[in-house]
Structure formats: C-alpha cells, structure tokens
Amino acid sequence: MPTGVIERYRDRLPVGPRTPVVSLGEGGTPLLAAPRLSELHGVEVWLKWEGANPTGSFKDRGMTVAVSKALEEGVQALVCASTGNTAASAAAYGARAGLPALVLQPAGAVALGKVAQALALGARVLEVRGSFDQALAAARELARRGTHALVNSLNPYRLERQKTAAFEIMEALGGAPDVLALPYGGGGNTAAYAAGFAEAGAGAGTPRIVAAEAARRADTVASAIRIAEPVHREQVEAVLARGGELVALPDEAILAAWRALAQDEGLFCEPASAAGVAALSSVQLEPGMRVVCVVTGHGLKDPETARRLAPSVVAVDPDPDAIAAVA
Question: Do 92 and 66 contact (CB within 8 A), yes or no?
Fold first, then answer.
C-alpha cells in the first residue's frame, strides 16, 4: 500500500515518473476529536495532529517534495533558515536523499530539541548573529549562487505538499469544516491549507480560516512562530480577504491553550502549535459548528519550555505511605 504523501497524492503534485521519491512515510496524520474543548466552546472541535509526522512537525509534508525535486534537478546540497522545525525536516530528508543540509538559525532563538534533532541527523548548523529574517536572506543568496537548493517555504514545491493536509481533513470528515484555525508564523501553511481546500473542491463549503499569530512576534515564547516579517504575508492577507480572520494572541493565551491540550486532551505539543486552539476564544463561533485546529509540532521539540512551566518533581522515600501522603 502506498505510503507518504507523494505516492498517495501523486496526481495532484508536481512530480513525474522520473522524480526520485524521497519519503519517510509522512502524512496520514490523525484527526482527533477533542471532547473537552468541544464542550468548552460549544462546537465540534477536531485536532489535526501533525506532530505524528516523522520528524514531529508538519514541515515533513512539504520537505518530501522539495527534496525529491532537488534530487531530480541534480542539486548537490540543501540550505534553509529555520526557527527549528524546517531544520529538522531538511536534515532528515537530506540524509534520506544523500544530500548535505546547511541550516542557518537565528542566535538564541531555537528550542534545544530542534537543534539536537538537526545535529543528530547530520546537518551543518550555523548560528547567525541576527534575526530569522537575516538568516533567510543569507540562505536565499546562497541558493541564488547555485550551490544549494533553498528548502524554506519560499520553495514552491514545499507549499504544494503541505496542502495535502487539507485533502486528508476533507477525506476524514466527508467535507470541509466550518472553521480551520492554525498557527501563523511565516504564513506558508496558511496559504497551503487555503489552496488545498480550494483544489479539493470545497467550493461554497470552504472553511473560514483563522490565522493565529503571536502578538509579540519577535520575542514570543512560541519559538516556532517567532518570525517578525512573514514571507507569505501577502498570500495570507489574500486568504483573510476571502472571509478569514487574523487573531493576535498574547503569550499567556497561547500557553493556556498549550496546557489545555496536554492536560484536557492528552496532546503534548510545542507552545506555538497551540495557537490555533487559543484563537477559538477570540472568534465568533456558532453552536454546533465543526472546527479543526491544526496542531503543528510535537512537544518534545521544546523540552525546556515544558520543563520550566510544568509542576516540580517531588522527591519521596520508597514507602507506600509516604507516596500516598503527597500523591
């Protein structure tokens, strides 16, 4: 049975018979009912759990196509700027393809779990003395010189693959949801979902897309969306102009949703991934609406934040009475 999004949706993607498929079995992620969130908001809430992808984030959907096409075109190396998830994905798919991956990350802005992942997968990781936007400018210049293939979301093949999540949601629900809420960092995923629903023929049933960004983009605790200047801003604005909604969230709201996902629904994600859930408290929802929140990355991507915000571990003697007294 075909695995991976290229084999599953080959007829909807820019690949041909000569494209070498570089896959780690990405896609096919669960769409989970969220009963407690549904009760809280008075709507039918579903969670698209993208942390189940091979490297723990939605980035794998686009990376399989970007790296497959890079290999087909004879590229010798990959480059990306990253706040973490793109780096891990580029490193993994680069290793699978036999292509070296160069990662440019903004100094002090990337969660430890993501750095460890990229390094373990063999990427060359360089810490740029500057912002994500400056790192991306450098990555784009390297790509223009012809030495590397840029695998950020500016690579058109990346967004072609990420739209497959919209196909999966429609297949699981038997149609489009009323509302789709998701984190908004660079904006590529927002644009990809909109394209996916349109291509799948949602038509009049196209969901209202809620793009959830951090109010303080440049220094939010949600490191995966810590991007001051979204490179896909114009595309997102076009999506919003068709009936979507932008919600700017304080870190406190993002972290409250992050805790709710973990403690009420059993889903441990990184803080940025909870932004779509956090946005539900700030938008108008009609009773009985069907809402899908995209949860973009696994909580083990950012273990420092989880450890800092979780309750302290309590030391006890190996005695049942002592344990019962503090349990």
Answer: no
What's the pLDDT band for 203 if we cut at 50, 70, 90? low
* Tally of CB atoms within 10 A around 181: 28
- Rounded Cα distance between 107 and 137, Å, is 15
Q: How far is CA 216 from CA 79, 137, 164, 254, in A?
A: 27, 22, 30, 12
| 0.90 exceeded by pTM | yes
Q: Which residues are registered as beta bridge partners of 274?
A: none
Residue 28: which of 1, 142, 143, 39 has the closest Cα? Answer: 1
Rama region for 28: left / alpha / beta (φ>0; ψ in -120 to 50; rest)? left
What's the whole-number average pLDDT of the chain? 93
What pLDDT score was predicted for residue 13?
A: 87
Distances (CA, A) of 134 to 82, 106, 200, 252: 11, 8, 36, 28
- Assess contact for 299 and 306: CB atoms under 8 A: yes
The two three-digit tokens of residue 276, written as one number: 């779509």
Q: Which amino acid is at 315?
A: A
Average confidence (pLDDT) over 122-137: 94
Q: Which residues contact 40 (CB under 8 A, 6 or more apart)?
A: none
Range of lowest pLDDT (64-73, 134-143, 196-205)? 196-205
Provide the 8-state DSSP code for 319: -
Q: What tokens were used for 167? A: 């196909």
- The burial class, CB within 10 Å (0-12 / 13-18 / 19+), for 320 is exposed
Instruction: Locate 235 and state its tokens.
Output: 């595309």
Question: What's the order of all strands across the beta sheet hosting 101-106?
Answer: 124-128, 101-106, 78-81, 149-150
Please report, rounded to a whole number, the percentage of residues in the chain having pLDDT higher than 70: 98
pLDDT band with cut points at 50, 70 and 90 for residue 1: very low
Share in percent of the chain as helix, strand, coil (round to 5): 50, 15, 35
Domains of the chain: 5-57+157-309 (3.40.50.1100), 59-155 (3.40.50.1100)
Element (H, E) at 108: none
